[in-house]
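To illustrate the input format used throughout this study, we show a single complete record. The first block contains the structure-token representation of the backbone; no residue identities are included at this stage. The design step must infer an amino acid for every position from geometry alone.
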């Protein structure tokens, strides 16, 4: 029944290309020309965060070598550049929530095998502060985590982490200062303490990964609460520094 409703919805309200916004034929997600213009993450990638690296012998990107991470692996689908940025900004700030289906579809199509190999039990979004949620009307990471959990058939815990501080924009800080800025910005929701007593692992998801400070702060909190392993996923990822 859900598939019938979804198909009917696509006929009545056809999808727009996430890049150029042209209406697509039934069943199409993106213009072929736009798909060719996007920069997909390709191997080799950093063993830890998933950023592309110049050689598989390198194993870790510059940021993960200089600032070791607590999470156990990561994957993304797009390089964050001026081609994908408008679609991401529309999704994040302009209520184009439907793009969650496209973003997660691309992520799972290209990285699903790796993510399945992690053996995670749940999907958790990076939380936003209530002020930002009230302003936007939603948490974009939670939209992504719900679709990802459905696609991977995993449990979804959108409130496992709570953002307690509305911190200054991360782009204002250096990599280490970003982490310091976030150290006390989150807390673990004690209602879910029971999840941490069964060697459970989680996939933590956010929209964009740059230095990894936000993912690292959340991963440390999840591991300190008792989770066995934390893996990370994002839709867009920055280019590794060399």
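Output of the design step:
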């Amino acid at each position: 029944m859900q598939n019938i409703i979804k198909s009917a919805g696509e006929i009545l309200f056809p999808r727009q290309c996430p890049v150029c916004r042209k209406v697509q034929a039934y069943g199409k997600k993106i213009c072929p020309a736009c798909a060719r213009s996007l920069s997909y993450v390709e191997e080799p990638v950093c063993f830890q965060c998933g950023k592309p690296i110049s050689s598989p012998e390198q194993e870790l990107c510059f940021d993960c070598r200089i600032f070791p991470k607590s999470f156990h692996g990561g994957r993304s689908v797009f390089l964050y550049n001026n081609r994908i940025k408008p679609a991401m900004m529309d999704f994040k700030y302009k209520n184009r929530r439907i793009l969650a289906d496209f973003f997660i579809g691309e992520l799972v199509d290209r990285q699903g095998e790796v993510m399945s190999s992690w053996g995670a039990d749940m999907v958790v979004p990076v939380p936003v502060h209530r002020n930002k949620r009230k302003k936007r009307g939603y948490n974009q990471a939670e939209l992504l985590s719900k679709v990802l959990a459905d696609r991977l058939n995993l449990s979804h815990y959108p409130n496992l982490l709570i953002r307690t501080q509305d911190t200054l924009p991360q782009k204002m800080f250096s990599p280490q200062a970003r982490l310091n800025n976030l150290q006390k910005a989150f807390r673990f929701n004690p209602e879910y303490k029971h999840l941490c007593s069964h060697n459970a692992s989680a996939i933590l998801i956010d929209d964009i990964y740059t230095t990894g400070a936000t993912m690292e702060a959340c991963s440390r909190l999840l591991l300190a609460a008792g989770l066995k392993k934390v893996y990370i996923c994002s839709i867009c990822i920055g280019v590794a520094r060399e």
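Structural context for interpreting the output: Residues 170 and 178 are 6 Å apart (CA to CA). The longest helix spans residues 99-117.
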